Amino acid sequence: MRWLGRIVVALFAAGIVIFVLLPFYWMAKSSFQTNTEIIAIPPTWIPQSLTLEGYQRALTMIPFVRYLTNSMVIATATTVFSALLASSAAYVIARYPFPGATAILAIFLFTQLIPPITRVFPVYFLIKDLNLINTYPGATIAYISFSLPYAVLMLSGYFRNSYPVELEDAALIDGCTLFSVFWRIVLPISLPGIIAIATFTFLGAWNDFLWASLLLYQGQMKTLQVGLRDFIGEFGSFQRANAFMAACVMSTIPALVLFSLGQKNMVQGISAGAVKG
Fold first, then answer.
1. CA-CA distances (angstroms) from residue 112 to 105, 126, 151, 167, 251?
2. What is the pLDDT of residues 115-173, one digit of tens each?
3. Which of 3, 89, 211, 255 has the fewest CB atoms in 10 Å of its CB?
4. Half-sphere exposure of residue 257, counting CA atoms within 13 Å on the CB side?
5. How many domains is the chain partitioned into structurally?
């Protein structure tokens, strides 16, 4: 009966894979179809005639390049500053314990348990009081504050277990300062963990809709995820279905490329931070 169990497991796994990948297939094939084929009943699972009409319309119906630039600038700035701040804070907490370090980590953990919707009013009015609504700095500050707790928690565990402390001691004996040890020894060795956190941070800022719709909602300052809503709000949900699907496909390409490049480091960084943590 062992073979029967294997068949059941294989069928179950295949069903999960189909369930997960089916929306992506529908999005990809619809981007190459005409609107008539997309809304046809029964559904047209295989495009009868491939067309690039959806991609052409997606680039002209909304300022796609501008929205893409906004998302890229904000996500990149958030990733760079979050990685620098989180690695510095996590290194101090991991290697130089001080009174209150455990409490800080507990507070960081507690922030991850709070639903994001509960922070809408305080964050919005704080950014508004700073006159940073609809600006790159305002959105970047907000995203950094959201990503730092998780990044510090993960990197503090990584710094404790990814390399022996004797490397730092040897560098200090050779005349390096504490900053030199961190910059020249710790960071290069810890790149897998930092890349993993940077990837999560970038994807979080890139895919976000809630905060982008609150902090960057006017005209040319919209991010790509907020801009995709214009297809439904201004042009109707079916009249430009292929353009909407094409825009969705193009918006996923940067995330897919980043994930494929950082996948190995993500697995290595997360596993190293979890062992003995």
1. 11, 20, 11, 33, 27
2. 888 888 899 999 999 999 999 999 999 999 999 998 998 888 888 877 777 788 788 88
3. 3
4. 7
5. 2
